[in-house]
Amino acid sequence: MTNRKLILILVLFLLGLTGFRLLWSQFHPLPEQAHPVKGVLDLRNGGLEDRILSLNGEWEFYPSQWLPSSSGLSATAPTGRSFLHVPGSWTTAAWTDRENAYGYATYRLRILTDPGEQSFGFILSGIQTSSQLYVNGRLLGNSGTPAERRALYKASDVPYSASLTTATGELDIRIQTANYDNKNDGGILRPVLFGTEAAINKERMFSIGMQLMVCIVLMLHGLYAVILYLISPRQKVLLYFSLMVICATVSILSDDDKLLQVWLPLSLGFSTKLMLLAYLGTFVFMLQLGKHLLFSSVRLQPVNLLTLLSALFTLLIIIVPFNNKLFGAVSLIYLLLLFAMSVSVFMLILSSLKQKEDGAVFLLLAAASITSSTLWGVIKNFSPLGITFYPFDLIVAFLGFATFWFRRYFWNAEQTAKLAEHLTRAIKQKDDFLANTSHELRNPLHGIINIAQSVLESEQDSLRTENAANLELLITVGRRMSLLLNDLLDLSQLRESSLQLQPGPIQIQSLASGVLDMLRFMTDGKPLKLRMDIADAFPPVVGDEKRVIQILFNLLQNAVKYTPEGTVSIQAEAVRQTARIHVMDTGIGMDAETCNRIFLPYEQGDSSITGIGGGIGLGLSICKQLVELQGGTLSVTSELGAGSVFTFTLPLAGISAASDTESSSMTPPLLGNVYNEAAVSLPAAPAASMKTAADTVRVLAIDDDPVNLRVLSGILRANHHEIHTATSGAEALSRLGLEQWDLVISDVMMPGMSGYELTRIIREHYSVTDLPVLLLTARSEPQDMLAGFQAGANDYVSKPVNAIELRARVASLTELKSSVHKQLRLEAAYLQAQIQPHFLFNTLNAISALASLDTEKMLGMIDALSTYLRLSFNFLNAEPLIPIERELELVRTYLYIEKERFVERLDITWELDYAGYFLLPPLTIQPLVENAVRHGILNRSRGGNVHIAVTGSPENGFEVTISDNGKGMTLDQLQTLLDDPPAIDRGIGLLNTHRRLLRAYRSGLQIWSRPDEGTRVVFTVPPVISHH
């Protein structure tokens, strides 16, 4: 659609809306203006009939005083009287020097009518911000409670009507009003309507009826949308539509006759804010509705920005008090925000129209209708004219939304029909392709299997054990692939109804035993039992032997695959002339939705839930069709987490058939060649050598499929890695706590505990450099990679695994860990080697001074310094662990030198209460003691005490505590002490010590400190480490 045509449609539509509104005003005109003069309106000899008059004109005005409500007041004006035009703010009257519109006053108008009993009515609205209506001394109605003081005053601007019957020929109208909330305007801001009681009631009921009618229409639409959203929560557009309808309904009920305040006890400030937020919400959700309808897959920054600004503005409206002077500025921002969102809605729709979304023109017209309604609402609120409620803009808007949705529904229905036809053709093409591919792949696949089998048999004596095992693995994997090809061929024959059956009497228990033997190789490494619970005396059934074996094989293979531990059993029972065979497992089970579709072709359980992948989802579909071809049924009962029971039925053989087969019941029948191929047992993995090189990499591989573990081990053993395997996440975790590992390789999809969950648990105890994790995933989609990295994995490899890629990634990750460990040890040695010049200079000065005072002490200082330097530069400091005595010797020599230098300022106490012998990382205690001396004790002139405690035993672990009563630290200093990167002047190698302890023991330094009370630093050595 061209821009010119679009603009023409929009202009014509707006002109139509405006014209219809003007036509409405002709049938429902504004009340006639009465024009009272000097507070008197003479209606004698005129007659009201059924007219309604706007009492717009000069009223008597009595600022800051209440007129007596008595009707006996003469026409003589009381003191302080002035005349004020109504409607209008009383700020135009020179009655106060205040800078705001706060105050109270009385309005008075005398209406002269023809004598005789008549019933009159009044409608009052827009009086700021409380009022009471007295006529001939009678209180007829009120909105809020006007008072001379704010404390006694209650604000409300709810319109109200009143009526009375009189025969006096004169109406003395007095309106008492007070305002302490609206700083800018006070008094009567809307026309006071007057007429016969019948005319007033008709006008009032018509206005309320129109508002209720529109609200009911809107709420019905909103209710439908909410119900549809509850049925399909992914359809966010229904949610936004419902919220838009709710906001539009609230805006109607909060404006005009303010019905919401009539029904609920809402304050003036709350109701005003609610109305503003309702209008704002209408535009916000209309903007979101347009975005999700037209650009659901695109991120639109302007829309998000306007939504954010609206949220901030909502918070501003809520926070700013209604009677605060800032509220006026808020109102201006509010109008600008509404304008910006209106423009954005139109821009969204225009953009979609440029992209050939023809149905968006109805959204454009709907948005134009809502904008028109809102603009007229703003004009009405700021206009002194008593414009009545106009319902048709909103009705037209929702008709536009409905038209758009109907158009889109029919378009989607047409597209669905086309897609269904296209899908039917695609399915046929896919089946043909798979059938042809299966035929083409069978020959080369069997060639590979036969060549491998030939090499294995002819070179059996010369092959190494590992190579022979790899050839057997190749043959097994090839035969499993052959089974998949057979499934594809069977499916093709079933679809073409060309499958030939040869039914006859067969012993089901013999077939079951043979199939269970075929599948025992799949239980390697699993705590899983295969059990056959069919009695020997069970009668024979009628069926095609080969196809019954195929049915049993597929059902039992499926049960073994989805049962990580427990039992898979097969049972049978005779019910009348039918055999019911049950394949039962204690596996992961299925939910009802999966059970309903599990027998459809190419359907499988959700691997993200089951944790198991593989296969193409044909086995159960083929089973069902084969059973039905033999006159039986196949069904499943299952519960998630409680296992499954697959039941199929076959007819029982007659008595003669049973006797014929009785003689051969003890001998298992010959099985089809295809399934004999799958019965090959996998050879056990060769035992690992007891001696490994010093740099051997220890890898823990986890996969629920033993075949995959053997393939993985074969690839990595070529690099002389030490490979250990586990078949579940729980087994892997138990081994992680007992042994040291350089790398974990885990499959993502495993039953019970997925690779993601296993990685998360590992990361709770090991950092990414302490124990790298490499995930194996069948998919390489970005979301799969992201999930792995978020769980804490270092890298991933897509399956099927490429040997070169896997070795390269394993080498990279193990080298990373080795480099980090080496770097930390060298960093510790480097820190100690950099003995600060001041320490050496001061120690040498002390030795020089002692030369002339105390030769014996000088020799002791020289000996201590030489010992300190020898221990500090010793190459053993770069080793991972050293004896505790060696670390304490370094501490003693350091403290001896400092004690000789500072004498009474430094007091040292030792508490060495430990039994046995243990190792710890070098340079762990000495840096802590040096920090305590330098930063804790010597920073104070009076000095202090350093307490060194080593307690514990190899059975319970050891605890090392360094405490001082020195300067201490503030909470802020304590919180940044172990930050990385390090803070300035935090201490000698403190972060390095903490990181090395974390790496060695998984727990670092624990520090407590208070200013002027001292510091305590503690670390522990666990029993396992101390025993080691």
From TrEMBL:
Enumerate the spans annotated as Response regulatory domain: 698-814
Record's keyword annotation contains Nucleotide-binding:
yes
Transmembrane stretches in the record are: 208-230, 237-254, 274-290, 302-320, 326-349, 361-379, 385-406
Key word Transmembrane present: yes
**Which Enzyme Commission number(s) are listed?**
2.7.13.3
Q: What is this enzyme's catalytic activity, as reactions?
A: ATP + protein L-histidine = ADP + protein N-phospho-L-histidine
- Give the molecular function GO annotations: ATP binding; histidine phosphotransfer kinase activity; phosphorelay sensor kinase activity
Boundaries of every Histidine kinase domain copy? 436-654
Q: Which residues carry this modification: 4-aspartylphosphate?
A: 747
Pfam families found in the cross-reference section: 7TMR-DISM_7TM, HATPase_c, His_kinase, HisKA, Response_reg
- Matches recorded under PROSITE patterns: HIS_KIN (PS50109), RESPONSE_REGULATORY (PS50110)
- Keywords of this entry: ATP-binding, Kinase, Membrane, Nucleotide-binding, Phosphoprotein, Transferase, Transmembrane, Transmembrane helix, Two-component regulatory system
Tell me a GO cellular component: plasma membrane
- Which family does the similarity line name? In the N-terminal section; belongs to the phytochrome family.
Name the UniProt record assigns to this protein: Circadian input-output histidine kinase CikA
Origin species:
Paenibacillus donghaensis
